[in-house]
Write a structure and sequence with these properties.
It is a single chain. By secondary structure, the protein is an alpha+beta fold. The protein is built from 21 helices and 42 strands. It folds into six domains: about 70 residues, Phenylalanyl-tRNA Synthetase, Chain B, domain 1 (2-Layer Sandwich); about 120 residues, Beta Barrel (OB fold (Dihydrolipoamide Acetyltransferase, E2P)); about 200 residues, 3-Layer(bba) Sandwich (Phenylalanyl-tRNA Synthetase, Chain B, domain 3), CATH 3.50.40; about 70 residues, Phenylalanyl-tRNA Synthetase, Chain B, domain 1; about 230 residues, BirA Bifunctional Protein, domain 2; about 90 residues, 2-Layer Sandwich (Alpha-Beta Plaits), CATH 3.30.70.380. Strands 28-31-32-38-37-36-35 form a seven-stranded mixed β-sheet, sandwiched between helices. A five-stranded antiparallel β-sheet has the order 5-4-3-6-11, with no helix packed on it. Strands 13-24-15-23-16 form a five-stranded mixed β-sheet. The radius of gyration is 40 Å and the shape is elongated.
Length: about 850
């Protein structure tokens, strides 16, 4: 909302010399956010001049200029720039006459955009200044000719400061109005807020107007399809003014105020309706009375009905749109934009004024449906004071009589069925407990009375009736906020709450933090992806098997193509990898910890609702609500691509692959103190033979908790990714549950270790991990570590077999092991592998 300072000063006392910063600071104190400031970007000397004479001089380029003699100061007196009182000025316009009074920018003046005026030689003359048009002064877009002051009804003395004359020395402050404070979308509302902040006297412009009710004009409210049970129009006021002069221009003060407020001047009648809208906060619409056929009906649009709006577009209306109609059909979108058939034009002499109050939800939906935001719809969406419609219509009539020469008659209508705002009980002590300040009862009563509420004190507290312009005050909490705002936020102390003893992070929270810290220390970068995916993305990565994966569809998605909640973290990691690759980052190691949504097939979710009211929901109602939420386990995903080790002198590059995401899995094992079993796995989107399934042992047996592998090359090509992209995804909640709340740490032995190698020949189809676990089981408690170091296939081995070599490390906690003890344990491991997989010692 832009607020011209001179306009604000009409309704509230501003201190002498108050600056834009001072006004902004006062408004910020009562919760209005500072946005900026605006002025006409003009610098004098800019004065009133009178054209004494001119000579028209045709030029070789086909253009005719006028060499003018212009008086810019009273005869015999120095001009504002210290120069002569008569100046020779070259002008290219031809719409003025000798004797006309015009605006002259003298040398030293600066026009909008930093255009400096100086005496300069042009067309064979020295032009000592410039005669200005309305657009050059920033008053509008009219650049057809010179601004003649007589067209504005002005006849000032020569040499008068034109900036002050045309209100071009004014400025405006701009504040952001939040959706719950629609009353502040007016000069009236901002003046009231300034009064709350500073204590300055407030003069309500509504009190200056005497409302008059018109009669005889037929208006009917016919709303058969109210939204949420609320009728589209609750107030509808009309008045008529006849005999206006359509040739009269808007006065300079009106044009300059509208310009500073961000609205361009169109015509006097339209400018007056916009002026009153800004002043009172009540949108006004004017109709050409002679173009209306019959009375007015407020109704919903008919199926297939169309309307040509004031912007020249023919719009197909929706049955939910609220329209204004006459006997022919729709003539306007209620609260959004009028229709072209009843537009006020340059021949309009009789005007019907409409001031109404429309349902905010209906107006908001219509404006968004037709992509047609307007100054009127912005106000209706936030709520307009229903009590101001009749005074606003009277104010428009008053200005049309004063400025346009019109005459008001008794034809009009008054429909007022707006529901009254209910009273609110504010118990004693509630505000103090909620805000944390010891307000006195007088503080509370005075603050609420200052915002316009009626306050009645009872034995239990205050009964508060909010003013008509504050529909946002609906409960005792909003009243408490008003008390804090009016008394001053600076009275609220900064007190740190005392943490209750015996609390802290849960086991799960500590484990998640430890996991993120370990992976970050291991060189991975944590990222955060959007949880919204397409059906294809969920199908590719939602489960290892084939077929569509059940997913939750959003009712109102940000992107209609990505309308499903994710069932896997991998698609988000792939999207982030693509974005980073496009910016030149070719070596990536990423991880994300986040929720996935895994509904059961055929199960409906999100159907449960809680009853509205003051009572808390019961345990049964909360249980039903929780039952309507799909399972949301917390997963951890990782992705690596590019080089794991960069090329450097003496060291070739080492490309990243499945081994690197398995290293990430091992980091998880160390972070959570859990043992994961890695087995050959299958996933429809991962490379066969380069896919691992991950298991953890629980009380219920072996449970699959995730997968790791390399994305199929065909899929990486489709996604514009390198050929090798390795990913892993695990159920972090399941890992944390398997780890438990305590971690057992074995003491470090001070005795030396005994190391031996073991080479076993097994069938090529036998997984190396299974053989490793068998050896470890047979070797017993002396085995401290086992690691696969070689997988050989070829010459010297039977067909369809392979040789697996393991490095074994043995250690005892209480003595130094002998070589015989280590060999015995090694052979026991080999025997167990032979028992399970027919493994043979390699000769």
């Amino acid at each position: 909302m832009r607020v011209p300072i001179s306009w604000l000063a009409e309704y509230v006392d501003l201190p002498v010399g108050a600056s834009i910063d001072d006004i902004h600071a006062a408004l910020v104190k009562v919760g209005l956010e500072e946005e900026g400031s605006h002025d006409f970007d003009l610098q004098g000397p800019i004065v009133v001049g009178q054209v004494l004479e001119f000579v028209e001089e045709p030029q070789s380029n086909g253009k005719t200029i006028r060499w003018c003699q212009v008086r810019v100061a009273p005869e015999g007196q120095a001009a504002a720039d210290g120069g002569a009182d008569v100046r020779g000025i070259v002008c290219g316009a031809g719409n003025f006459f000798a004797g006309d009074k015009v605006v002259v920018t003298l040398p030293g003046a600066v026009l909008p955009g930093g255009f400096a005026i100086a005496a300069r030689k042009t067309y064979g003359h020295v032009s000592d200044g410039m005669i200005a048009s309305a657009r050059e002064l920033g008053l509008g877009e009219d650049h057809d000719g010179i601004l003649r002051l007589s067209t504005l009804g002005l006849d000032p003395e020569v040499g008068t400061d034109a900036l002050a004359l045309l209100n071009l020395d004014d400025a405006a402050v701009e504040v952001n109005v939040t959706p719950d404070r629609g009353y502040a979308f007016s000069i009236r509302g901002i003046a009231r807020e300034y009064s709350h902040s500073t204590g300055a006297a407030f003069r309500d412009p509504v009190a200056r107007v005497t409302p008059v009710a018109g009669t005889g004009f037929p208006v009917s409210i016919h709303d058969e399809a109210p939204i949420r049970g609320r009728v589209g129009a609750t107030v509808f006021v009309t008045r008529t003014v006849r005999g206006i002069d359509p040739t009269v221009k808007s006065p300079a003060w009106l044009v300059s105020r509208l310009k500073l407020a961000g609205i361009r001047s169109l015509s006097l009648v339209v400018d007056i309706t916009n002026y009153v809208m800004l002043e009172f906060g009540q949108p006004i619409h004017g109709y050409d009375l002679d173009a209306l056929q019959g009375g007015i009906v407020v109704r919903r649009a008919a199926e297939g009905e169309t309307l040509e709006t004031l912007d020249g577009q023919t719009r197909k209306l929706d049955p939910e749109d609220l329209v204004i109609a006459d006997d022919r059909g729709a003539i306007g979108l209620a609260g959004v934009m009028g229709g072209a058939s009843t537009e006020i034009g340059d021949r309009t002499v009789n005007v019907l004024i409409e001031a109404a109050n429309f349902d905010p939800v209906s107006i908001a939906r219509t404006a968004r449906r037709h992509k047609l935001p307007s100054e009127a719809s912005r106000r209706f969406e936030r709520g307009v004071d229903p009590a101001v419609a009749q005074p606003a219509a009277a104010r428009v009539v008053e200005l049309l009589e004063t400025l346009a020469g019109g005459t008001a008659d008794g034809l009009g209508s008054l429909h007022h069925a707006h529901p009254e705002l209910g009273s609110i009980m504010l118990p004693f002590g509630y505000v103090q407990r909620l805000v944390g300040v010891d307000f006195t009862p007088d503080d509370i009563a005075h603050s609420l009375g200052e915002i316009g509420a009626e306050v009645e004190e009872t034995a239990a507290g205050f009964v508060v009736s909010p003013p008509s312009w504050r529909p946002d005050l609906t409960d005792k909490a909003s009243l408490a906020e008003e008390v804090a705002r009016i008394v001053g936020y600076d009275r609220i102390p900064s007190v740190l709450p005392v943490a209750p003893p015996g609390r802290g992070l849960t086991v799960s929270q500590l484990a998640r933090r430890r996991t993120a810290d370990v992976l970050a220390a291991g060189g991975l970068t944590e990222v955060l992806a959007y949880p919204f995916l397409t059906a294809t993305q969920n199908t590719l990565f939602g489960s290892p098997g084939e077929g569509e994966v059940p997913a939750i569809r959003l009712a109102n998605p940000l992107d209609s193509e990505a309308a499903l909640l994710r069932t896997s973290l991998v698609p988000g990691l792939l999207d982030i990898a693509r974005r980073n690759l496009s910016r030149g980052l070719t070596d990536l190691a990423l991880f994300e910890i986040g929720l996935v949504f895994q509904p059961e097939a055929g199960q409906a979710y999100g159907q449960e609702t809680l009853p509205v009211g003051a009572a808390l929901p019961s345990d049964g109602e909360l249980s039903e609500l929780h039952a309507g939420i799909p399972p949301q386990p917390r997963h951890i995903g990782a992705l690596v691509l590019g080089n794991a080790v960069d090329k450097q002198p003496g060291q070739p590059a080492v490309p990243a692959g499945i081994a690197d995401v398995l290293d990430v899995v091992h980091l998880l094992e160390s972070a959570l103190a859990v043992d994961l079993r890695v087995e050959t796995g299958h996933h429809k989107s991962l490379h066969p033979g380069r896919t691992a399934e991950l298991f953890v042992e629980t009380e219920l047996g072996s449970v699959s908790v995730g997968f790791a592998g390399e994305i199929l090359p065909a899929l990486t090509h489709e996604l514009d990714l390198p050929r090798v992209v390795a990913v892993a995804e695990l159920d972090l909640d399941a890992l944390i549950a398997a780890a438990g709340s305590t971690i057992e740490v074995a003491p470090i032995s001070g005795y030396p270790a005994a190391t031996q190698d073991l080479s076993l020949v097994v069938g090529a189809e036998v997984p190396a991990g299974d053989v490793e676990r068998a050896v470890a089981e047979g070797a017993g408690e002396l085995l401290e570590n086992i690691r696969l170091v070689d997988d050989y296939r070829g010459f010297g081995l039977p067909d369809a077999s392979k040789s697996l070599t393991f490095a074994l490390r043995f250690r005892a906690a209480d003595r130094t092991l002998t070589a015989a003890e280590a060999s015995e344990a090694k052979l026991a491991g080999a025997a167990r592998a032979a028992e399970l997989f027919s493994a043979a010692l390699r000769e």
